[in-house]
Description:
Helix content is 54%, strand content 9%. With 657 residues, the protein is of the alpha+beta class. The protein has 3 domains: 22-190, no CATH class; 200-421, Serine Threonine Protein Phosphatase 5, Tetratricopeptide repeat, CATH 1.25.40.10; 455-460 and 492-652, Serine Threonine Protein Phosphatase 5, Tetratricopeptide repeat. Strands 2-1-3-4-5-8-10-9 form an 8-stranded mixed beta sheet. A two-stranded antiparallel ribbon has the order 6-7. The termini are far apart.
Amino acid sequence: MRLRPLILLLLTSPLTAQIRVPPPDEQIATAVLPLPEALRAGAGVRGYDASLKQITLRQSTNGMICTGDRPGDAEFDVRCYERGFLAVIDRNKQLNRSPSFSTPNPRFEAEIKSGRLKVPGHPTAGYRMLGPIAAYDPKTGTWTAAIETWQSVHFPYQTAAEIGLPVDRESVLPYVMASGTWWAHVMIQHAPPGPDEDTRSPRLGTLAFPNSGAKAAQDDFIRGVLYLHSFEYDDAAKAFQEAETRDPGFVMAYWGEAMTHTHAVWNEQDLSAARAALARLAPTRDARAAKAVTARERAWLDAVEILYGEGGKERRDTLYAQAMERVVADHPDDEARAFFSLALMGLSQGVRNVPTYMRAGAIALDIFARQPDHPGAAHYVIHAFDDPTHAPLGLPAARAYSRIAPGAAHAQHMTTHIFLALGMWDDVVAQNIAASGADRSRWQAGHYTTWLHYGLLQAGRTDSAAALLDLLHANQDPSAGPGRRANLAWARAHQIITGERWSDPSLAWRLPIDTGATVFRAVDGFARGYAALRRGDAAAAATIATELATIRTGSNAEAVPRLLTRELEAAIARAAGRKPEAEAQLLAVAREAALLPVDFGPPDLVKPPQELLGEWYLEDSRWTDARRAFEAALAATPGRLLSIRGLARASQGEPRP
């Protein structure tokens, strides 16, 4: 028995000597290929030494660890996992005495149940490339279509029903493996690009939409659909109207114009304008249906008639989604699937319903795999997955969308829904600069510029953010509407809080916010009140807290005024020395905030309660509590600057400066 290791060494050494083990740099470059580009530089890498022993070639700085391809194997296989999940996989291999993952033995499950083996309680991402070794060229770092590229997202102990995806593989449709177990995960295959579709635009993407319209109206119609998929509704309406002019009886052109008046994920709908657009085709529903040339067009027209028919919006949205599902069943093509995906997201009336959004995202991902230049597919993938838990599913689409539709400003911005959810601040900044336009003299406070401002703050570029805020204020027309004023106040609030600029010059600006904009009023009031408190003016803070308490509040997003009021009151109590009372109240705010629908952008709770708790714990030298609070804050708002700094101080036992 004592001689066995030596005998094995003698037997395997000649074989090992014949295997070329690539140098470390080459192994590292190959190992990180499955990862999105933004994660590659910080990933740790496990490779092999000359004796084929697995060794660490590079330490991880971002939590991802990749295992390189084993030299000498007939199959190319590279995998990357988050560190915490990889530890579980390693333990599985150790207990099963196997170099590869296999079915867990009873001891493995017992260690999980006892808590000795920690399975991450949050979803984690995995990436893999595999295929014949001959299909990968290590010299050029390129591969053929024989190499499969997979992405997985692990949801420990969740079922397929909870995740909202099927358990059976259907083409490249995402599906769930090991439902309900610690190994439960969503599998997504990224297919190689397919052939070009039959209609291409260098600015807006590619799609195919068969119809019976006149040839002269086709370019306008396709341009309208492309704009529609990118939510450029005004430009879409103009294109559809041009198609109507070229072919006055073109049913689908009127369908398209009517569709520009529903903004599903924003919960907006202009019913009268949509009905007016349809009425120009013919005065009644039956008369319009008679103009449809094909059964497919009658089905599309019937769906939009239902969307703008009788009853309340919620009921009509539901019936419309059902109608689009019938269109997909009877006339299946990717355009029908894309609009069905969007219809599903519209069912939530502006509030994310995770299973429904996962279903919509699965449909869009399926289209995106077949048509990587389709703007709607990429766009709807992003909308479905733009929260911190699911954002890794949307990263490939986010990387692609700005390239697909460079002529749509919304496409440039929309990518940052994923980047922000992953804390990728340089990308948030770059894409919102592109979305805001080249002429900075025209920049005003709005969706794109406020996201840009928030990205600058989280990237630690506080002076640049302040300069941008000054620019937006200088560019604002004195007669600016309520939306411009509210957005400027909202950006100012984040600058005060994230920049910790308690005496910021912008506090002197008069930015009246309309009474109905309750969330904006609460965000602005909290920032002003908290800044006053940090300056030592408790009386001013108390006055603002009283004002905040008068703002109408409710459920979901409408709960924000109440939560910010209570958070400011808690801060006032702590400043007055009532620490137990303040902590109890802020913990209650944090618990209620955790139940709110996920923010898909910069947080309305401008000072996340868990972040504030962490700062209080730092002040009290409660390092463990502080670390847990900051970790909870970062789970909800990944990459947030103050939470990262706080977590570092808590880990090192350093008080807040």
